[in-house]
Amino acid sequence: MNDRVSINECFARDGLQHESAFVPTAKKLAVLASFTGAGFRRIEATSYSHPKQVPAFTDASELLSALPRREGISFKATCPNQKAVQRALADAEAGYGADEISLLTSASNSHSQVNLRASRLEQWQKVEEMAAIAAGNFTLVGVVSVAFGCPFEGAIDPQIVIDDVARFRDLGAGYVTIGDTTGLADPAAAKRLFAELVPAFPELTIVAHFHDTRGLGIANIMAAYEAGCRSFDSAMGGVGGHPNMIHYGSGSTGNVATEDTVNLFDSLGVDTGLDLDAVMEASAECESILGRTLLSKTARAGLANTILREADVA
Amino acid sequence: MNDRVSINECFARDGLQHESAFVPTAKKLAVLASFTGAGFRRIEATSYSHPKQVPAFTDASELLSALPRREGISFKATCPNQKAVQRALADAEAGYGADEISLLTSASNSHSQVNLRASRLEQWQKVEEMAAIAAGNFTLVGVVSVAFGCPFEGAIDPQIVIDDVARFRDLGAGYVTIGDTTGLADPAAAKRLFAELVPAFPELTIVAHFHDTRGLGIANIMAAYEAGCRSFDSAMGGVGGHPNMIHYGSGSTGNVATEDTVNLFDSLGVDTGLDLDAVMEASAECESILGRTLLSKTARAGLANTILREADVA
After folding, report:
1. What is the pLDDT of residue B250?
2. C-beta of residue B155 within 8 angstroms of C-beta of residue A304
């Protein structure tokens, strides 16, 4: 198991989306620099959400215009609607902006209505329009939410997800992210779905985006990896996710912590392409920026291989 | 994957061991009753530790004498030394006491010295004496700590663990618990070791005891299950473990949360023999007794299948 994996760092967008306090642009830039320094090659940078809907990203254009670009590093911006894509395009025309934009869908109609304020049919029409506007300017990232189960509708037929991935492929997407939005996946279901998706779409990168709602996030990543998936979303400190979206508003659900994901792959001997010390420094910087202890256990305990190596030397 | 698994509930011993406030005996008895009511069949009840060393268990004999016995339920008491076994025997002769006693060893000499104040050689001599005293009166549970790596010595040769399991077998143990004491296991290592141990010792029940030090606990349980292990230790709320034992005293490390373990197996369709609603009620009772929110994510979010079923009905 020595295949290289790509960990897409989601702290700056999915992570910060639900933070009550606005993180100043300079601090975001500093933390994004720590991510590129640590070797992350795909990084969620911001969202072109409506500034009144998601105040965390009022600085989307300002942030992207100030973001130092480096060959081989891809910054992603979320585009929830056509207006967002137009803003992304305007930034691109001004000579800066995101490399990737993500377009959102839900595998269930009810979640689509609640999260995107559109039925699946309506949302797919919007996505087609957005993809047409964006074509040629960005790498498109399709997102399929609640792919492993919906808190409103229950089980999701995997064929819906497979068909949605095919639609994103037909729209020219480079990546499709399979979202376990409220943590209803399990390792067996994850293995089954990724074992179908990965070989079925060789022209796409299939990305696993698990939430750790019930503590199964890392186990599901492991299962997806065993099924051939090599691209994973996670967020430093396990922040973000959909805190109000588990079950009619109760409970909380967060991203899988990047530090724990890195520890998993490092322990397995799987190359992440990351500078592990720099990952842990970036982790500390994320805690410093948010001013609280975040949820990664590895951030507290250290990477297992680091402990083992130090013990060997001692 | 429909084999039945046994989840051994460790809250009342491994969980409470490091609590600063003494939990009154009546409350322990109430929570143990909630565990038996939920269907747990192996339950860590207490420890015959020296009362001055571990004040949490000064009431070991009182607790065991008041514990209602039921056919098919096995209560375990930890016995760290010969004196402890003698106390366990005295209780047994008085007509009550534990069904199982656990005898502790470490796979590394350094951890043995720190945790048991004896070299491996000395500890094995003690364990042989303890097993001889206990023979015929209890089911013996051998424990091999730091089986996947030692914070002081680094990597552990799996052959040491295999040999230690064989020694416990030769001493008449019914169970041998493989402890990842400071969370240095990963799913590949877990799968390798349990795939060796389970078929090699058909006369024993091999128990997986993972700590969630780096967030890999559930992934390791999944891997051990895939390797044939069917018996798992966990503690309600993920409390306990060895909070001061990660790496020369820094950080914290806890048991895997029973609620998250139950959610894993329930999601996989693996029978735990447990009443799931009663498990969640027992979980709430553990939080109530300790007066704080504990670490299980499933305790906050609910069991995935419960959410999916309710959504189907809605």
Report:
1. 39
2. no
Distance from CA of B149 to the nearest CA of A (A): 7
Return the higher-pLDDT residue of A68 and B250: A68
The complex's ipTM works out to 0.94
Question: Which chain B residues are Cβ-neighbours of A221 within 8 angstroms?
Answer: 219
| Closest chain B C-alpha to A257 CA, distance in angstroms | 9
The conformational region for residue A215 under phi > 0 = left, psi -120 to 50 = alpha, else beta, is left
Q: How far is CA B270 from CA B5, B79, B211, B266, in A?
A: 7, 32, 21, 6
Kindly list the structural domains of chain A, giving each domain's residue range(s) and its CATH number in brackets, ordered by start.
6-313 (3.20.20.70)
Q: How far is Cα of residue B283 from the mean position of the Cα atoms in its chain?
A: 16
Asked if A215's CB is within 8 angstroms of B219's CB, the reply is no
Contact A308 B154 (CB under 8 A): yes
Chain A residue with CA closest to B146: the answer is: A308
In this model, does residue A241 exceed pLDDT 90? no
Contact call for residues B5 and B266 (beta carbons, < 8 A): no
Cβ of B260 within 8 Å of Cβ of A304? The answer is no
Contacts of A188 in chain B (CB under 8 A): 1, 267-269
Dihedrals phi, psi of A252, to nearest 5 degrees: -150, 155
A248 φ/ψ angles, rounded to the nearest 5 degrees: 55, 40
Given a cut of 50, the residues of chain B with pLDDT beneath it are 1, 244-251
CA closest to A189 among chain B residues: B268
Mean pLDDT, range A16-32, rounded to an integer:
95
Q: Is the pLDDT of residue A29 over 80?
A: yes
Distance from CA of B251 to the nearest CA of A (A): 5
A148: confidence class by pLDDT, cuts 50, 70, 90:
very high
Give percent of chain A with pLDDT exceeding 90. Answer: 87
- Chain B: residue nearest A270 by CA? B188
Position with higher pLDDT, B197 vs A251: B197
Q: Give me the residue from B184, B189, B212 closest to A307, CB to CB.
A: B184
Q: Do A154 and B309 touch (CB under 8 A)?
A: yes
